[in-house]
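thought: user wants a sequence for this fold. calling inverse folding tool.
action: design(structure=
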């Protein structure tokens, strides 16, 4: 047997079938939930869930492409990818497609996609490249974080102006998580936290009125039950009415009677919880937890620091999405339009999440030296 075949067999032997399998299972559950919602409310339920199936297939292709390329090669070209995505954001600001007052989408022929989703993966690899190139003794100081902070700040500002506050916050959370991995000096950490707290009034000033109202109604949605508090109220009713065993597939009154807004995207968890109840929701959360644990295992057993950094970026991204979306549907966090990974309808988000899982699988498959 030649070396190429040996390396190929070793790569396959390190493939995490549980991580891959859970990703597929949750995606299939998402398709069923989207079908149950009746799609985008246009009277064509089949069209929406069929589109989701197509996006899953494209996501699998994207995952496969990520798997075939050694993650070190991705790291080598990441600065080119970073510059390209910044240029794309500028193009969107000037000529991008506007939907519901937001300019987040880029149209190429019949295809419309959201580049800010792909930016998450690009930013993860870019930060991993930057941190991996620096040999800094001891803990990171504020001055050592200046350049990576600017790397994050540029896309954060461009995305926040679209406006897409949820994605902007996720990018910043990825930066913080990866910085913690590099170990931040306690004094520098205190300065960062203090700076963030002091910047909140400025952030509030630049928020849109509807974003402010969502935060103000978070603690008491009843102050505006037919306006900014409507989403949270209907979502909590849906989840609570599911009880322990749920009402059954396509039997949820909140979604079937169209009381629940954005039911096929932001509030897909509410739909699932109403139909499958506490037991089904718990099993779904457990499946997500296993995926995150698998990701943490990749971090600890990565071949090198760059692999570990990429893995922690992916895990932090998925963690934020899962916790914030479920927290949003249960009234813990404000509604900011963060999708639930592999469940919510949306091609750009779905493909990004599949590529993220592909990156984790890539790092795990190549955790031994001599495998490429």
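)
observation: tool returned 372 residues.
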């Amino acid at each position: 047997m030649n070396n190429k075949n040996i390396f190929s067999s070793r790569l396959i032997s390190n493939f995490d079938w549980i991580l891959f399998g859970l990703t597929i299972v949750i995606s299939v559950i998402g398709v069923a939930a989207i079908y149950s919602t009746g799609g985008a409310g246009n009277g064509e339920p089949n069209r929406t869930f069929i589109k989701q199936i197509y996006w899953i297939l494209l996501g699998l292709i994207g995952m496969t492409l990520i798997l075939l390329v050694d993650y070190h090669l991705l790291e080598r070209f990441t600065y080119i990818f970073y510059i390209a995505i910044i240029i794309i954001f500028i193009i969107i600001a000037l000529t991008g497609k506007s939907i519901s007052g937001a300019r987040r989408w880029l149209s190429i022929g019949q295809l419309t996609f959201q580049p800010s989703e792909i930016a998450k993966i690009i930013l993860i690899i870019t930060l991993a490249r930057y941190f991996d190139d620096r040999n800094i003794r001891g803990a990171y100081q504020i001055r050592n974080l200046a350049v990576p902070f600017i790397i994050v700040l540029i896309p954060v500002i461009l995305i926040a102006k679209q406006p897409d506050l949820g994605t902007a916050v996720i990018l910043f959370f990825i930066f913080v998580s990866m910085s913690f991995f590099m170990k931040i000096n306690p004094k520098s950490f205190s300065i960062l936290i203090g700076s963030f707290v002091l910047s909140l009034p400025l952030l509030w000033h630049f928020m849109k009125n509807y974003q402010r109202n969502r935060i103000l109604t978070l603690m008491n949605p009843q102050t505006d039950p037919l306006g900014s508090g409507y989403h949270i109220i209907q979502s909590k009713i849906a989840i609570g009415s599911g009880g322990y065993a749920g009402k059954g597939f396509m039997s949820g009154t909140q979604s079937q009677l169209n009381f629940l807004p954005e039911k096929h995207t932001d509030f897909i968890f509410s739909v699932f919880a109403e139909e499958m109840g506490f037991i089904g929701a718990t099993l779904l959360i457990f499946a997500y937890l296993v995926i995150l644990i698998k990701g943490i295992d990749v971090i600890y057993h990565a071949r090198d620091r760059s692999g570990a950094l990429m893995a922690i970026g992916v895990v932090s991204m998925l963690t934020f999405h899962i916790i914030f979306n479920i927290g949003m549907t249960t009234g813990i966090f404000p509604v900011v339009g963060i999708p639930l990974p592999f469940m919510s309808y949306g091609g750009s988000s779905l493909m990004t999440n599949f590529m993220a899982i592909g990156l984790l699988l890539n790092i795990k498959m190549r955790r031994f030296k001599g495998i490429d």
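thought: summarizing for user.
answer: Here is the designed sequence. The chain has one domain: 3-365.
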